[in-house]
Structure formats: structure tokens, C-alpha cells
Amino acid sequence: MIRIVLAEDQKLVLGALVALLTLEGDLRVVGSATDGAEALHLAETLQPDVVVTDIEMPVLSGLDLAMRLKQRRSKAAVIVVTTFARAGYLRRALEAGVRGYLLKDGPSTVLAQAIRTVAAGGRMIAPELADALWDAAPDPLTERERAILRLAEEGRTNREIAIQLSLSPGTVRNYLSEAVQKLNASNRIEAGRLARRNGWL
Known about the structure:
2 domains; 14% strand; single chain; alpha/beta; Arc Repressor Mutant, subunit A; Rossmann fold; six-stranded parallel β-sheet; globular; 11 helices
């Protein structure tokens, strides 16, 4: 029996995934979460064989979740199931130790097979993304720049970002300036848009 933790912030999608996977005789959903932090706690507590996660989630993204599990030497294999068919996301996912990357518009049988494949030590990547990975530009952003750009995207001021991340407003300004320059953008808004389009946020 392959034990699974599911992480998906849309409750209807989460419920559908639980129902679909429960129909498979060799798969068992032992926990489900609607944000990345809850999923991390469940993965550490329940010790599943596989964690299936979306990318965009509250508190911790699916990629942050994968990176935390990798850093903590979790034995759970991570599969990302997302709407983002962007090579930048796939590259970051692989760097975070993700073993499977599937698109949400695929059939449920593909997800079930991917779970079996990664649980056995293999990898499974949506074929339409595998070729694009070779042409993807490398992510120029640091984790700190990425975090600050995300908050700037939400409309936060430098001061608000500084308070949230325990930095000085001047340090936040410097990080934003560096990110804008790296992305060859004219301002923070354009930098966020370019980074998101490339799968770097």
C-alpha cells in the first residue's frame, strides 16, 4: 500500500483527488492539507511514501514545501500537480528534489501511475514540458529576491515588506533594485510580471 499526503488549496479539487485516488486499490490517502505549512506538518508526522502538491498555496508554496522536505531529508517522494506549464517552474521543482511534475488537465490514471513510479524510485514529468526544460533560461533570482518580489506583487510597501521579513526598508529597496536589474525590467511591477511568466516566482 502506497501512503499519500495531498496538498491542494482548492477544496473541491482536493476532494476530487482524494476520491479518485481512493478508487485505486494500492493507494491510500493518509492526510490532506489546504496550505503548504499544514502539508509539511502532515508529511513529517505521518511519514507518507509520496506527497502530491499544487504549486500555488498559502503559507508555503508547493516548491517551498518540496525544498523543506529535501532539507529535512524526508523519505517522501514529491509530485507537483499544477496548471503551470512553464519550464521555469519545472526547473525549480527539480532543484527542490521533486520526482514528478504533472499538469492538472491530464487524466487521473496518469497521476496514479506517477505515484507508483516515484514511490518505486523513478521520475515522471509531463512529456509536453520535458523538451521545454532544455530551452529554459536559468532562474536569476535568489530566494530573498523572490520572497520580496512576491510581497511587492501584493502591493506591499518597502516598509511593510521590511517589517514582515525583519529587514530594513533600505535593504528591501536594494533587493528590489537588484531583482529589477537582473530581469531587465523598468520597475518592480514589471519585474514581478516577468518573473511570474518565466516560472521564477
